[in-house]
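Budget justification, computational time. The allocation requested in the original proposal was used primarily to generate structure tokens for proteins on the priority list. As evidence of use, we reproduce two of the resulting records. The first is shown immediately below.
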Amino acid sequence: MTASMTGFARHALEVEGQLLVWELRSVNHRYLDLRLQLPEGLRELEPELRAAIQQAIARGKIDAQLRVEATGADVQIAFDAARAKALIGAIGEVDHMMVNGARVSPLEILAWPGVLESSVSPDADALRERVLQALRAAIDDLRAMRAAEGDVLRQSLQQRLDAFAGLAAQVRERRPEVLQEQRERLQARIGELDLTLDPQRLEQEVALLAQRLDVDEELDRLDGHVAAMREILERDEPVGRRLDFLMQEFNREANTLSSKSHDLLTTQAAMEMKVLIEQMREQIQNVE
């Protein structure tokens, strides 16, 4: 299954007067880059939560945020004045060390971990299980979105791959015509110079020219790359890195094909191949 690295998921779960809200955002990245934001009282769960995400997602830059919101009407908020004063004092000391330091707003003080606390305190074990439950649900939603976008990417890649294979087939079919045109051009040049050339020597020159223009190996390798890419796109595993490497091989053979071309139509086909390779490469950057 080809999965995209772009996605978003939000899942909320109510627990004893509190609402656990998970938000997961994902964009493309070479590796798995995970940033986890947790309330102060739940930071001890970070290793377990991080492991749950790492087991489910192979690549991408993931921003995972958990918010705990009060839902009950009788919920009271405890304000830790001592912690707030200590924080303000520390900010003042740092401000004296800076030139034109930015002003810290009261809301930023209140958002500091531990300054405001809810009076609702669910059982720790029950809360842990609920946090993991909500995270797993958010991960499932994120993976579903990434899979849906990945299916679109796979179809687009297959369409471009079909176009690429068609161009390679055109070049292969034209090979005899190209050699015949080169033979005729050589004979015409000899005629213009009014030279008498032994037929056997002419055939030798044509053979040497055909050897310099031979692209059968490049076309065979390109056919192999096309078959390999079709197989990779059907795998039920992360395939982004394999496809990225394969694009380098595609590009190498297309460059060689272009450099050996002495025919306008073959050159145009090689250029179209390079355009398709670049389009596929850009799409593959977002494949997990």
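The second record produced under the same allocation is shown here.
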Amino acid sequence: MATADGPQQPDSRLSKTTRERLVSVGRHAALLVWSFVVLFPLYWIVSMSLKPPSAAISLPPDWIFLPTVYNYLQLLQQSSFVYAFFNSVFMVSASVILVLLIGVPAAYVLSRYDIPKQRDVLVWILSSRMLPPVAVIIPFFVIFRALNLYDTRVGMIFMYITINISLVVWVMKAFFDGIPETLEEAARVDGATRFQAFRKVILPAAKPGIFSVAIISFIFAWIELLFSLVLTNNNAVTVTMQVYQFIGVRQIEWGMLAAATTATIIPVVIFVIAVNKYLAAGLSFGVVIKE
């Protein structure tokens, strides 16, 4: 019995290549939208800093305008802001160096040696970040006044170290745990001491972790405001306090505030760009070791 084949229905399924292209387009579109959401506030601050004071908060906003550096010139004429800016650069940089000198060896010891109650020690280190800053600010104020550390650079550097030490120890311990101990054993076989193996083998392999915690520690210390408000007055004033001064009781100087905010972003960007080169080198070094 002969049967006639009916008309074939077209295949409505998309090919694998088409699906991959759609997924790629959707992913890039989502990243583009997210980039806009993240970068738009930065654009708004920078554009506001380049507008005349009268046009800084005009509604509707002026999207096309003639840029001016008036706000930055006014900012540079304020010696208090310039002093606070370089004050913060010195104190934050010193605190990052010291917290790495303390935290990295401590993390290495916790990773490589069997210490009694090691878990308790790690929890004790982490406990320094468990309480909110507002809960410990009064005890720190009393201690600083008793030790003559109030409104001193040494006191603020110590404060920044206290803020970041737990981060450095925990992150670097996890990083050292991921580095094979056979590297150190090979160096010891070649005649290196334990310290030489740590300095010449382990530290280069740990570059990604070191520079990562350095960046985070720098940012955490740079943007800190509460401890600066309570523990400083004149000599150790920070740049975040000076930015806060532009918010008055009856008036906010939006142009100056935007210029000061933009100026405080610049050191962080420069530091991240400078460290990124070494971070990439450390990452490639780690990949070679892992293979």
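A brief technical remark on that second record: Residues 31 and 37 are 10 Å apart (CA to CA).
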